[in-house]
Amino acid sequence: MTLGKYSIGCGDRFAREAAAQLEAYRKIAEDGVDVVPVWNKSNREHDIIGTEPSSVREAAQEAVSAAGWTKEWHVDADHINLSTVDRYLESFDFFTLDVAAGIGGEVDESAVKTFLKTRADLVDSPINIAGLAEPIVIDQKRAGEIVRTYLPAVKQAGTLYRRILDAKGEGNFIPEVSMDETDVPQGPAELLLILAALADEGIPIQTIAPRFSGRFNKGVEYVGDPAAFAVEFEADLMVVAHAIGAFGLPANLKLSVHSGSDKFAIYPEIGRLIRKHDAGVHLKTAGTTWLEEIIGLAEADGEGLELAKTVYGKAFVQRVELCAPYAEIIDIHDDKLPTPEEVANWSAEEFVRALRHDSTDELYNADFRQLVHVGYKVAAKMGATYLKALSDHRESVARNVTFNLYERHLKPLFLDS
Fold first, then answer.
1. Domain ranges, residue 95
2. In this structure, are 49 and 17 located in the same domain?
3. Do 262 and 392 sit in the same domain of this protein?
4. Per residue in 144-181, pLDDT tens?
5. Rounded Cα distance, 369 and 261, in Å
C-alpha cells in the first residue's frame, strides 16, 4: 500500500462531515491536483466523544460511496501507541506511530554503540546532501547525544510497527512516525540520524513528522518566522530525499506537518518548496472541521447560534479541564477571553467573525477560537442535541467545512498563487 504524493489528514470529530470534506478534494482534483484524503481521529477524541474507531471508516466509506469517489483514500489511527493500537487494527490502514514520549527516555548503551559503529559513515565525515549549500558534519560527541536522545523513541516505533505488521501483514498499511509533540525541534542532522535509525529498525515509513521550529498551536496561525521555517523545511526535504537512497527507505517517503490546521503563513512556503523539489507532503488538519461546524451553526442564527453560545459558555467554565490535555499546543490568555455574558449578547455575525480565522478582521479572537477548539467535549456531552443541530443546519455547516478545507488549505498549498 503506497500513499500518494500529496495527502491531507482531515479530522471529523463527530463523523458528520466526510461528504463536505470530500467535496473539497473533488474540487482540487478538478483543478488538476490529486490530494489523498486521510480521515483521522485520535484515541483521546474517541474516548472523550464516546465513539469507536470503526465509526471513522464507516463515515468515510459512506461519503466515498455516495460521491462515487474512485481515487485513493485512507483512515488514520492518529497518534496511537502500544496501549491503544489494538482497537484500530481491524478498521484502519494508516497508522501514526506516536513515539514523542520516548524521546530522551531510558537508553540501551549497547544499542547506541551498535548504531554508531554500523553508521560510522555518518559520524565525523562531511555528508554531502544534494540541495544543501554545506555538508552536514556530525562529530562523535554530538552523534552520541542525538542517538541517545532519539533511539529510545525509534525502538518504541519498531515495537509498535511490528505489532501492527503481525496483525495486518506486510504492505497492508501505511506507517507514519511522529516525533512532533516535544519541546526541542529536530534539525537536519537529527532528522538524518533518526531516519537512519528507523531504517535500521526495519520500519518502511512513508511519512515522518518531525518537530519544526516555531509553535504549531491548534487551529491558529503559525507562531514564528515563515522565512526561517522555509529554510528549515527545505533542508528537511533534502535530507528525506537523501535518506531514501542512502538508507533504502520507501521512495515515496515525505515530510508530515502536524497541527497543520490554519498555518496560513507557511502554506505558500510549503507549496513553493514541494513544487520546486517535486516533493510530496502530508499535512494534518485535525480539529478545524469541528470549528467550522460551530461557525456553520452560528451563521445559521436562531437555535444554531444559541447552541454555539452554549458550547462556548460551558467551555469557558470548564476551561482548565478542557485545556489540560492540550497544554503544549495551545496558548490561551484568560484576560483576552470574552465572558459568556458578553457572548450571549453577540449577533450571529459577531460570533462568526470572532471565531473564523481571519487575522484581518478586527473582531477575530484567537484565544476565543482556541478555547472553542478544545471545547468539543461540551458538544459531545450534548449528544443527540448537538448531532440534530448539525442535521438541521446541514447546508450552512457543510458549506463552511468545504470552503475552509478547499479555499484556505488545499488551494494555498497545492496551487500556484
1. 6-288+406-414
2. yes
3. no
4. 999 999 999 999 999 999 999 999 999 999 999 999 98
5. 13
